[in-house]
Amino acid sequence: LKRLELLTREELSEQERDESLLKIVADQSDAYQRAWDFVDFYTRKKDCAKVLEYVNDAEQHLIDRDTPLAGQATTAQHRALLEAKIRCASELEDEGALDEARDSAAKYNVDGAHGKAILALYHIQRDEIELAISALREVIEVQPTDARSLTLLGQSLQRVNRSSEAKLYFEQATRVNPHDAGAHRGLAIIAKTQGDIETYQAELANCERLAPDDPWVRSEVLVRQENSDPAGAIARREALLSETPNDRVNLFRLAQLCEEVGDLAKADRFWGRLLAMAAEEMDSATERGIAVAAANYYCLTRRYGQTVAWDAKIHQTAKHTDAT
């Protein structure tokens, strides 16, 4: 109640509110719960170093069972702590903490699969996706209703362009837990890629309900709104462009919107800026993606000379990518 009161007091500055919240947390009598409260506070403040500090504190109390609430702690809570530890350690590039989380998960069997779920996260943070997929398959063998691991397996398969297989795991995850936002998002992305508009719209509606603040969801909802009023969207995005002239996402969307309303002169201008940026600032894979999109644009607008030119650019960047 004290925390809720603080959050609703508009006269407090952010610093005053934070200081008051920290005092309430510090007064918590149970050290295990206090550590969790600090984890929650610093997670909201995006302070990874502090989160990691209090995750370690909470885990030690859980292992020692040295407070009333620590004595009642579950393996699910231990798993949640280690998941947070993996995320923060990765952000801080703390290899020692990553190794500790991996080893602790196996030692205490926090997932019923000898720590393989945490091992998968460990591999994902190190961009070892195939190893993560292997670990997650082991989890699913012994814990077939572990929705988080099903979703993570689907996401990992998506990352290596195995969407058909990913879809099966997302569907399985939503059967186990219909409220799994990550699984619904995965299904929406696959449906959009495959041109299945009906499924895409249904899954996007699920995502809006379950995770309205997810960046991908917000972006998709914005695109839907803009499609109903492209002229207004262009005006808003051009105003934004004056503030952030090198925003590639905004330039790309402006090019699309101008194409939709038939203003090819403007679309050409935005594509030109994107392509110039691609040549100067972007890695080869991103540059190639923009070149593909540009080639498609010029093909759809029946300017085949430009299409041929950008097809050549695609092949050039592909050779460069292969060489590197």
Keywords:
324 residues; mainly alpha; 19 helices; disordered C terminus
3D structure, described in words:
The protein has 324 residues and is mainly alpha-helical. Helix content is 81%, strand content 0%. The protein has helices at residues 2-8, 14-26, 31-44, 48-64, 68-71, 75-92, 95-108, 116-125, 129-142, 147-159, 163-176, 181-193, 197-210, 215-228, 230-243, 248-260, 264-281, 284-300, 304-323. Helix 1 packs antiparallel against helix 2 and helix 11 (163-176) packs antiparallel against helix 12 (181-193). The chain is globular and about 70 Å long. It starts with a helix and ends with a helix.
Q: N- to C-terminal separation?
A: 58 Å
Give me the Rg, rounded: 24 Å
Helix content: over 70%
Topology as H/E string? HHHHHHHHHHHHHHHHHHH
Gross geometry: globular
Low-confidence stretches are 317-324
Mean pLDDT: 87
- Share of β-strand residues: under 5%
Total DSSP helices: 19
Count of distinct strands: 0
Structural class: mainly alpha
Largest sheet: none
Structural topology:
Elements: H1 2-8, H2 14-26, H3 31-44, H4 48-64, H5 68-71, H6 75-92, H7 95-108, H8 116-125, H9 129-142, H10 147-159, H11 163-176, H12 181-193, H13 197-210, H14 215-228, H15 230-243, H16 248-260, H17 264-281, H18 284-300, H19 304-323
Helix pairs in contact: 1-2, 2-3, 3-4, 4-6, 6-7, 6-8, 7-8, 8-9, 9-10, 10-11, 11-12, 12-13, 15-16, 16-17, 17-18, 18-19
Quick summary:
The protein has about 325 residues and is mostly helical.
